[in-house]
Every structure is written in C-alpha cells, then in structure tokens.
Amino acid sequence: MVEINLLRSYPRSKRDVDSRHAAQEEQRLVAMKFGREYFDGDRTQGYGGYRYDGRWMPIAQDFCNHWKLKPGDRVLDIGCAKGFLVKDLMTVCPGLVVIGVDISYYAVSHAEMETSGKLAVANAAFLPFPSNFFRAAISVNTIHNLDKDLCFRAICELQRVAPAGGYIQVDSYRTPEERDLFLRWMLTARTHYEPSGWLKMFQSAGYTGDYFWTITE
Question: How far is CA 187 from CA 31, 75, 78, 79, in A?
C-alpha cells in the first residue's frame, strides 16, 4: 500500500460548516437517501448541485498515468455518482473500458450522456463482477458511507475485483480539531477513523492498493 494523493488537482470548495451544522441531524436523514436533494438540492443537504464542469479531467489523467492504463484495460469507479470520472477516463484514454457503479438510482439515471450503458446501480459491498476482472478500481469518498462491517466488505470486494490496482480515498482527521470540524460537517459517513485506524482496516481486509484521505477544511 502507498499513500498518494491522486486527487491533488481537485479544486477546494468553501464550506459553510455553521449553516449545515445548525440542522445537521435533519439534513443527514435527507442526505442518506442519496436522491435529488443530496445531488441537486441545497448545499446543506449535500453537493448543492452536482454538475459536470471538467474538474475531473486532470484527475482522470493522473489515474491513467499512475497505472499506465491503455486501450482495452478495464477500470471500475465505485461510487461513480453521475459518471463524471467515468466520462473523463474514457476521454483521456480512448478505448479504455470504464464501468461505474453507485448506490443512487437518482445519480445513475441523471448521468452524463456519454456514460450511457456504462453505469449500474450496485452496492460497493456486493460488486457484481468476477474476481480479477478489472485492471484498476477507484473508490473516492464512498465506502465510508457504509456501516463498519459493510465498509470492511467493500474494501475486500475492491481488492477481489482489481487485485493489481486499487485506489481508496476516505474521510479522515489527524487532530482533535479536524475531527470536531468533520463531525460538524459530515452527513453521510457512517465509518470514520484517524489514518492509523483506516490503515488497520485496510490491512485486515488484505488490501494492497493505494489510498489517501479527505480532510475537512
């Protein structure tokens, strides 16, 4: 396993933590449905409008460079939402076979036109693919939305379908201050640890891929 930030090109967004925290419990119940409100509703309930703007393009290129992906390779995006990364991976590497899965029917049904036939509704803990089917599998800010047991299973599943190349990014915190800020902002993360706790889970699951952390700022 290697700690590497393959999302270093992703722009940072300004978070109004106080506004979300004011009604956090009510907003969490809405967000956990992963429906219209989460993706295209108010910012206090999720993304505040999850729309394609090309920001995943340099990240897609970094993934391709990292694994030296080539046409014909199969890549899985676990937690693909509306398919932005799937679309951009196919753009930066024409001929790459990219599949996305997400638990949200809303996200998949409102996906980018270019991803038609490439996305499916599925749970990260129960991937509907054979073992060693993918050259690489990516999970960005997804598996922490599962309860601990299913989160562990999701790591095992990613390792199973893509043993030669995995990347997991999850919510984490390194200091008491970062943990407090995370807890005030978080809506959907059911499982969360300091980096050492995540590494212990990765190792217990037999995960051999790469990883990084999303730190609330």
Answer: 7, 28, 19, 16
Tell me which of 3.40.50.150, 1.10.357.10, 3.90.960.10, 3.30.70.1130 is the CATH number of domain 17-215: 3.40.50.150
**What is the Cα 214 distance to its own chain's centre?**
10
Strand order in the sheet with 74-78: 119-121, 97-102, 74-78, 136-140, 166-172, 210-215
Angle between helices 148-161 and 195-204 in degrees, nearest 10:
60
DSSP E strands: which ranges in the chain?
74-78, 97-102, 119-121, 136-140, 166-172, 210-215
- How far is CA 132 from each of CA 40, 144, 146, rounded to the nearest angstrom? 35, 23, 23
Summarize pLDDT for 173-200 with one digit per residue, the tens.
Answer: 999 999 999 999 999 999 999 999 999 9
Least confident window among 36-45, 66-75, 111-120, 207-216: 36-45
Indicate whether this model's pTM tops 0.85. Answer: yes
Which of 110, 90, 86 is closest to 99 using CA atoms? 86
**Degrees to nearest 5, angle at CA 107 with 85 and 78:** 45
